Amino acid sequence: MIETNLAQNLKLYDREFESRFLLGSSRYPSLESLRSSIEISKPAMVTASLRRQGGLQDDLNNQFWNLIKELKVPVLPNTAGCHSPKEVLTTALMAREVFETEWIKLELIGDDYTLQPNTLELCQTAEQLLREGFKVLPYCTEDLIIAQRLVDVGCQVIMPWAAPIGTGKGPINLYALEILRDRIKVPIIIDAGIGKPSHACQVMEMGFDAVLLNTAVALANHPVAMAESFSQAIEAGHRAYLAGTIAPSESAQASTPVICLLYTSDAADE
Asked: Is 105 a catalytic residue?
């Protein structure tokens, strides 16, 4: 029997997930749109910002939290908007209490224009969160040294950007990403800058382990259809990576089989 089901579960820290798609929860046109996007794409986790959710105090935030609990989808709180290690720690501790989870996506912003992470303090902040018992998923750039340092302090997952958050440009530094994938041996989730399903498929074909995105779905003309498209593209890219793509070639190679026919003189006369 030929094996066609090559897909494997995604393992992050001590937990396995069937999906390799992580979905953000902000900027959707409606709560119902978010609900349908989650239901159709079946993401491994849904991100949520404690700051954006406002501590879940008002009615809309309560509706959001009730929706997440109803759908039974794991929550990945993040520290979006934090500019200092102190802010990160405070937000993470609050998120753990509110969302009842040890998972945290570490965002430590260094520049408000590009939303580039503060790599100078990122590693020590990740180390502090790990000491506090968090399962840390750090948002970083494609810098190999920073990524390796994050692994060295104990991060079992890293999350480099494809491009700055919300730009939709797709992977802009393929060389650096290829080096990162080759050298870093823990799961790598591409986070930020993905604009089209083809972008997601591309990075999965390169061997990355998962994709996290928000804007490309939330701001699409039809978010639910786009969520489904991304889910399928991520799965297709992962399966293609496992199947093994052919190496590029500078020269053309005929792929149509040539069938040789033996002609006799009688056949020729006819």
From this structure: yes
